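Practice record 12: protein with 48F.
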Amino acid sequence: MEKTISTAIVKGFYEKLLNNLEIDTAIVGGGPSGLICAYYLAKAGLKVSVFESKLSFGGGIWGGAMMFNEVVIQKEAFHFLDEFKIRHRKYDDNFYQADSVELASSLVYHSVNAGATLFNNIYVEDVILKENRISGIVINWAPVMERKMHVDPLMITSKNIVDATGHPSFVSATALKKGGITLNTPSGGIEGEKPMWAELGEKLTVEHSKEIFPGLYVSGMAANGVSGSFRMGPIFGGMLLSGYKIANLIIDSIKQGKSDGA
Ligand code: 48F
């Protein structure tokens, strides 16, 4: 029996990995914006994987605010709560409340169920940059990176990459630093996140969610960091609208043949 269990796990994982070495979209970071983006891309029939360095997906959702495990969603994003079957309470005419654990677990469940592949414990350490286009990611086990072990990585080729790494905008920062590229931002670089201003932060999160270099999209707090917008704390509508917007931009670009492949 022991041999059967081990063989099933090894075969299952390697099949999953082999099937995802060449994909339509690689999403880096499994927070709210990355997960909802994965859900809509998978629903549209695209081959999408999410790479998350932590053991669990959900990013900043679980902790709510200061570990009060509640989130606030504004009415503009309320329809997602119904689509993801998340129970909620109306707070006033503009805001709804939900349980953060239910929001995180529902986004994880629905993205996998729609056909996205979720890889945890994998750290994206670099990008593939060829002929002025980001065309893949470079991955390693998160514990290898944490322990600074000298171990070479593997590569995933992808038509598009989404930087959904949250506050550090890690993928964009790495591409900028190592590739010497110019981003679609006012300075051509990373503008840097600004302090708290919830209303404007929510609005600009969505506006700044875009393709910032051929093949490289930014969502959620990574979009705010790259384009220099404000933080907003435990209101999550902007994150969900951001991931949804990026999914639609990628679907349109693939339909129009603008994503010329890995
Ligand atoms: O930070 P995070 O939840 O991203 P988000 O979608 O949402 C932000 C909100 O949670 C919250 C907020 C709401 O108002 O402000 O902060 O922008 O999730 C980002 C995920 O990316 C992972 C990280 O572990 C986290 O789960 N991540 C970051 N860098 C890497 C990574 C990397 N290099 N490789 C793999 N995963």
